[in-house]
Design brief:
The protein is an alpha/beta fold and 243 residues long. The protein folds into two domains: 113 residues, Translation factors (Elongation Factor Tu (Ef-tu), domain 3), CATH 2.40.30.10; 113 residues, Nucleotide-binding domain of ferredoxin-NADP reductase (FNR) module (Rossmann fold, 3-Layer(aba) Sandwich), CATH 3.40.50.80. The protein has six helices and eleven strands. Strands 3-4-5-2-1-6 form a six-stranded antiparallel beta sheet. Helix 5 runs parallel beside helix 6. The protein is globular. It comes from Thermomonospora echinospora. This is NADPH-dependent ferric siderophore reductase, contains FAD-binding and SIP domains. InterPro entries: FAD-bd_FR_type, FNR_nucleotide-bd, Riboflavin_synthase-like_b-brl, SIP_FAD-bd, SIP_fam, SIP_rossman_dom. One of its GO terms (molecular function) is oxidoreductase activity.
Length: 243
């Protein structure tokens, strides 16, 4: 089939190896078969949560075909790729896909992409909420142990903590049932961090308005160059298409 051959040229095929609940509202999807991809910790993949070749997909539009997920871990030699997928409010296509995925199921996705990765720095600061924890896990794992790490992570509750490498070096905040949007709590946590006088590099990810507020803190209050604050707005209420 011509359409399937074209997909094989443009995308990667994997198979669900395991599905596991790993934290509050978070599940691990472990895929196999993706051998030899180039991946830098912090990058993401675009997953086909619907069959692109199905007639129903074209009848209902293509906007809900792809969902972007940061990669938790990847082994190029074995082809094992791990995604940590968060449950979001509502029953969107990505949530439905994650809840119905089962071992043996084929998954089609794009090759790893994105520039939200670590840079050489005097030290590294990680700031975000649940949606930031997956790329942060990969980035922290890849950092040499000798490089200094600081940061603030805000999540709903303690049982939602992912096993972040060097997580004991980060400040954790729990917001309960409050929204992560426009989070003053996270900004205050960052304001309270004791950082060296010279700038390092900050990696700030999560809800768009909170990300902007944290960047403003680094630039306006701490006097950091804007280029030293890398931001990744994954979502914001009422808007689609952020990643």
């Amino acid at each position: 089939m011509a359409g399937r051959r074209l997909l094989d040229l443009l995308f990667v095929r994997g198979v669900v190896e395991a599905v596991e609940e790993v934290a509050y509202r978070t599940r691990l999807l472990r895929l196999s078969g993706a051998v030899g991809l180039e991946w830098t910790p912090g990058q993401q993949v675009r997953v086909h949560v619907k069959d692109l070749l199905a007639a129903q997909t074209w009848l209902h539009g293509l906007r809900d075909v792809l969902r972007t997920y940061s990669v938790w871990d990847y082994e190029p030699e074995t082809g094992r790729l791990e995604l940590y997928v968060l449950d979001h409010d509502g029953a969107g296509p990505g949530t439905r896909w994650a809840h119905t995925a089962e071992p043996g199921q084929e998954v089609v996705f794009g090759k790893p992409e994105g520039r939200f990765v670590t840079r050489p720095a005097a030290y590294h600061v990680f700031v975000g909420e649940e949606t930031a924890c997956v790329p942060f896990g990969a980035m922290l794992r890849a950092l040499p142990a000798a490089e200094a790490v600081h940061g603030a992570i805000e999540i709903a509750r303690p049982e939602g903590r992912l096993p972040l490498p060097r997580g004991e070096e980060l400040t954790w905040r729990y917001r309960g049932d409050k929204s992560a949007a426009s989070s003053l709590s996270l900004v205050e946590a960052v304001r309270g961090l004791s950082l060296p006088a010279e700038p390092g590099v900050a990696y700030v990810a999560g809800e768009a308005r909170t990300v902007q507020a944290v960047r403003d803190h680094f630039v306006r209050e701490r006097g950091w160059p804007r280029g030293a604050v890398l931001v990744k707005p994954f979502w914001t209420p009422g808007k689609r298409g952020l990643e």
